[in-house]
Amino acid sequence: MPASPNPVIILTVKRIRRLWLTVIILLAACRGPVSPAGDPTPVPPTSTPTPVPETPEAVAAAFLTAWEQGDTGTMYALLSPAVRAAVPPDRFAARYQSAVQTATVLTATATLRAVLQEGARAQAAARLSWETALVGTLVTDTVIPLVLQDGHWWVEGSGDIIWPGLGEANYLYMDYQIPARANIYDRNGRALAAEGKIVTVGVVPSRIQDEGAVLAVLSRLTGLSPEAIRARYEGRPADWWSPVADIPAQVSIENADLLLNTPGIEAREKPGRVYWGDGIAPHVVGWVGLIPAEQAEAYRRLGYRGDEWVGVAGLEAWGEMYLAGRHGGTLYLMSPTGQTLEVLARRDAVPSRALYTTLDREFQQKVEEILGGRRGAIVVLDVHTGAVLAMASGPNFNQNVFVGPGSALERAAVLSHPDRPLLNRATQGLYPTGSVFKIVTMAAGLEKGGLTPESTFWCPGYWEGLGAAYRKECWKAHGSINLKDALTASCNTTFFTVGQQLDGIDPNLLPTFGRAFGLGVPTGLVGIPEAAGLIPDPAWKQAASGTPWWPGDSVNLAIGQGDLLVTPLQVARMMAAVANGGTLYRPYVVARIAAAGTEPEVVFQPEAMGTLPVSPEHLAVIREALAGVTTAPIGTATHRFLGMSIPVAGKTGTAENPGKEPHSWFAGFAPADNPQIAFAVVVENAGEGSTVAAPMARQVVEAYFGLPLTPLPPEALPTPTPQP
Whole-model pTM? Predict the structure, then answer.
């Protein structure tokens, strides 16, 4: 900490500065134009034109303009030959840059107020202002000396003309006040991200007495194989400490005897960001990292010192201004010996503020376990508010590997994993919905297509509405079936027919309904990046391919195929609107921002974004049909929900994926007769919706309501894949 400033020195410097400024301004105001020799009598004009002589005013103005712009090259060129002989250009530039960087200068402003000339010397009075990122605005009055030499006016001095008081060797010093980073909590106040200790276990090879014991202990604590552990220290200097892996602080405490009494093992700890468990909701919570080089200037302009850990993803990044608070600091003018000459400015730090999310930590963990290592996503929403209760994307990863010094190999594994674990498939994964879209098609048929729930269709197991050459298959020959039952039974033939009929009325009708149901458009979720997706329509197709829309495009769209792309979050929001009576809420994951200092608590309220274009009567029919999916004999998922004590309404979807297995969907809400939650489950390339996604959806409902999880059937078990 710098020594306390000497009040006598500060008073003397300030008095001298004010005195000189007052004298210059008064004298300049009283005098008329002067001759180069200092004669107050105006110089009479000559009869022959002569070049306009260089003036001290012009040189002072040019210097101050360069000072404002940080143009050290121009500033240096205006210095007198004597000053330039004594101060090399790189040293002058370095002093200027050091001063503005230390003071966290954002903009500089200089105003030339007056110039007093006495013969070959002049004094320019100026007001200098620095707008800084950390300590506010600094304003000072200064006097710049000039000298006439060899017919030119030059600026004298070096340090003081950068900022008064710097002189030849003084310097600026900023003492930073950095608030501790605030925590991120779940809806119940349980930590998801917190400040804690990162414990890194490592090996000093020269101290190993029993390598087998070392490998056994580290394998037990880290879960790594002995071969992987050995690879992390082999080939390195024997006396070097080689980090092996990071372990939770609690694990290091519980195994302190092993760590302390196994020669060759050394544990080191440091303060750092810690994510609960093995990393919970990493795509939502995000993680921190050192300031990226390409963002260093942006953070400097916010008052950051440059070595802080900042949010780089998820809520850690979105909430940086709250979680980090605002840096404070004290700017000192220091002598070469480290004594404080003057306190130039001070601003207190603003405390950091915790974020409280809408997630439930225990439920989120269970949902992540249900998704397992599969590629896909699960989203669970509160149907009455849009609050995100759980959001899982797979494959998952442990974001602790991004903050621990011993996690370099784990970080590399995550970054290079072919299944792209960093992609948040819940909000950025784009998929066709398959038969889940039939909810939209039925609504459009009821509202605009002249259909009723009892409108009857004939399904022989195929459809040739576009001609025999364009024959399309239904998964089953349903025979005579009405529209309501067709949704329950997921009859393709019925919905091919409805799609064709809607196209005949207006090709834009079905795409318009899709968007009105919240599909193919951003949900407005704050804090988490999301993709928009696509609802194809005639204008889009013409622009994208140069070809016109034809009835087959509407037929494909009617069953959720073709160019349709949506996110799981959009589907979950649609199901929530169907469940709650038709209101599309903006999903939100931040429940509140804690109060701190003078800043009050901010509470996020549910926000209605639209209403489904369906009458209450028709919406009730759709809900009844969706309840039949899990209970009626013709329901596509009835066999997956047998014995379920909580009634579930939903829709299976099998989205074709050319060249690969289809994506498996199940979207719904529960309880069916009094909805509380809505959800969407999608598993990439997993097969039919009733085979994989439906049994997983059952487990999601059971987990939320605290029921024992029904084991997945063998066909729904995931194929083992390497985890990042």
Answer: 0.84
